[in-house]
């Protein structure tokens, strides 16, 4: 029998999952991003649509836009990153730290000038382009201490200004939008170091800004016809989960930063005494999280021993409960999909486990980054699956007959060490065909899909 779950890897997997609501990520040909230092990567549209993105990122490693454009790029998505470090919504409302910073108003003007005409290399269309906007960190941060405004009222001024920019993008053809909320910057050293009074004052401002952003997006969506998606992705639960469970996720220091690292380090493992290695920090400097928060480390942080230890402890407890060991896999085509394959006497026994305290505790920690995406109970003797399986080919066939659904040939002629098939006991129309391979050499089939999945084993 077989259970499967999806692990939304830290921030990025959460994001790709959410951004695929209507315009699926796999069908997204163009991604246009607007924002500040959390988003910028040196891409310079003024230098042309094929400008490279060699610039400074605030995360000491690929930021979320670069990760979406590379590791997580499944559709050859072309990225136009218009973000500018230090950006606010409008420099006339909240001045940025330098006059040269391009605000969202400036970034939208650049979009209009360089991309709206759809030049060669940027022939985007309304139904294949996602517009992602992550703004507000500096709006809230820079205006935090102002006494000439009431912050919540001022945020509605900011929202009105942001709305004019969204309207402009809509008029130019944008139909799919992703918004990211302001993360808990009250937990960043910049504010922590100013003491509990400052932190306590900032917290409700962030909550208010994010609430206004969410209602602004709803209003924008209902005002216009034909908006395909307008999703608000809340970054707060993800950041808070990582910060609250620092040990689990391998962060040693979540409150401070090391001056020697603040502008980036030559390597991602750099250590300058007396500081701990840079990889141990959540914050690279006073305000910017390290790239490990943006994305997984290569090959995948999921293979990190600290996370491993946590899964292992759940695995042990579940195995004790069920009498079957747990095996873990991820999906080659979609590294965000994480699978737990194990045995149960019957599906009732599994349901009891799901409701158990141990499992609920696990879900409490991993809840914000992990969602149970699917579950299948297959009538196969789990003990038959060779314990040294390193790659598992899974094919689901609806209304499938007996034993006809195996994949006939692997790309490289390898033979599976075991094959088995069985009905989904909760949905007897579905048959599952499993093929196990024991010597891992890369995905056994490159053209899997359409109900066929290649899973790679993690954690022996
Ligand atoms: C972007 O490219 C333009 C044109 O090549 C150049 O003038 C400008 O300085 C560049 N901007 C930055 C921030 O590098
Ligand atoms: C950008 O690259 C694309 C190919 O990826 C090409 O078709 C286009 O002409 C290029 N545009 C410019 C301005 O160089
Ligand atoms: C409030 O004061 C700040 C800082 O002096 C200034 O930049 C801003 O324009 C003022 N805002 C309003 C609404 O008066
Ligand atoms: C796992 O994470 C910890 C803490 O960040 C780090 O020290 C260790 O090197 C990581 N291990 C691997 C294999 O990446
Ligand atoms: C975090 O790192 C900073 C800089 O190295 C250090 O001053 C601080 O004491 C560390 N905090 C903890 C809790 O280790
Ligand atoms: C896996 O185990 C089987 C026996 O169950 C054995 O024949 C095979 O050689 C093993 N493969 C590897 C790579 O160890």
Features:
single chain, 460 residues, alpha/beta, Rossmann fold, Alpha-Beta Plaits, 2 domains, six-stranded antiparallel β-sheet, five-stranded parallel β-sheet, 31% helix, disordered N terminus, binds 2-acetamido-2-deoxy-beta-D-glucopyranose
What layout of secondary structure does this protein have?
Layout lengths: L5 E2 L2 H9 L11 E6 L28 H6 L8 E4 L22 H12 L13 E6 L2 H7 L7 H21 L4 E5 L8 H4 L3 H28 L5 E5 L1 H10 L1 H4 L41 H4 L10 H18 L4 E5 L6 E4 L5 H9 L1 H10 L3 E2 L19 E8 L19 E6 L6 E8 L14 E7 L2
Parallel strand pairs: 2-3, 2-4, 4-5, 5-6
Antiparallel strand pairs: 1-9, 7-8, 7-13, 10-12, 10-13, 11-12
Helix pairs in contact: 3-5, 5-7
This protein binds 2-acetamido-2-deoxy-beta-D-glucopyranose (6 copies).
Protein described:
With 460 residues, the chain is an alpha/beta fold. It folds into 2 domains: 25-294, SGNH hydrolase (Rossmann fold), CATH 3.40.50.1110; 307-457, Alpha-Beta Plaits. Helices cover 31% and strands 15% of the residues. The protein contains 13 helices and 13 strands. The chain has helices at 10-18, 64-69, 104-115, 137-143, 151-171, 189-192, 196-223, 235-244, 246-249, 291-294, 305-322, 347-355, 357-366, and strands at residues 6-7, 30-35, 78-81, 129-134, 176-180, 229-233, 327-331, 338-341, 370-371, 391-398, 418-423, 430-437, 452-458. It has a 6-stranded antiparallel sheet, with no helix packed on it. A 5-stranded parallel sheet has the order 3-2-4-5-6. A two-stranded antiparallel sheet has the order 1-9. Helix 3 packs parallel to helix 5 (151-171) and helix 5 runs parallel beside helix 7. The radius of gyration is 24 Å and the shape is globular. The two termini are 19 Å apart. The model is unreliable at 1-10 and 292-303 (pLDDT under 50). Bound molecules: 2-acetamido-2-deoxy-beta-D-glucopyranose (6 copies). It comes from Gymnopilus dilepis. Residues 1-21 form the signal peptide. InterPro entries: Dimeric_a/b-barrel, GDSL, GDSL_Est/Lipase, SGNH_hydro_sf.
